[in-house]
């Protein structure tokens, strides 16, 4: 191999290495944007159901019950004509293995919390699910109660679960 062939080979190898490295950097940047970005489109379902029935409906016709990583996600929920939210189920439930921890229906512990004052209180010892109230705050209630609910149609390009 001549000196010019060796130099050309080194340049090609160097370019290939830079291209692979750049692909990895772009992938990591996209992954971070996906985790921090919008979850998807929230849909309000007016029918009143138990938490389990609402979850089953959302999983059949959408992605899951709605979940939130930030206040800005809550602000994207569909509103009633008066500008307030209609109280409804969200995908939040008490971890059966740790009664002080809450999880999202789609997986993972909550990293953002928006509980109303003195909530969750587990009044009566059966409040293992959560609804979002008219002002966007959460309160724990019994899963056997009947509420309208919010589903999320998650962007299929995002990772399956965005909670860590």
UniProtKB/TrEMBL annotation:
Transmembrane segments: none
InterPro entries: C-type_lectin-like, C-type_lectin-like/link_sf, CTDL_fold
Record domain C-type lectin: where: 42-152
PROSITE patterns cross-referenced by the UniProt entry: C_TYPE_LECTIN_2
Pfam families, per the entry: Lectin_C
Superkingdom classification of source: Eukaryota
UniProt-recorded name of the protein: C-type lectin domain-containing protein
Organism: Amphiprion ocellaris
Source organism phylogeny: Eukaryota, Metazoa, Chordata, Craniata, Vertebrata
């Amino acid at each position: 191999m001549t000196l010019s062939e060796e130099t050309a080979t080194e340049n090609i190898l160097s370019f290939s290495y830079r291209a692979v490295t750049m692909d990895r950097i772009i992938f990591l940047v996209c992954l971070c944007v996906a985790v921090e970005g919008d979850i998807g489109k929230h849909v309000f379902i007016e029918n009143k159901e138990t938490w389990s029935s609402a979850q089953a409906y959302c999983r059949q016709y959408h992605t899951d019950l709605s979940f939130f990583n930030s206040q800005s996600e809550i602000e994207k929920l569909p509103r009633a004509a008066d500008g307030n939210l209609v109280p409804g189920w969200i995908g939040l439930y008490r971890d059966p293995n740790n009664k002080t921890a809450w999880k999202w229906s789609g997986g993972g512990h909550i990293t953002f919390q928006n509980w109303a004052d003195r909530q969750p209180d587990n009044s009566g010892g059966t409040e293992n699910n959560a609804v979002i109230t008219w002002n966007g705050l959460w309160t724990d209630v019994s899963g056997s109660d009947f509420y309208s609910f919010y589903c999320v149609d998650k962007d299929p390009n995002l990772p399956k679960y965005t909670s860590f």
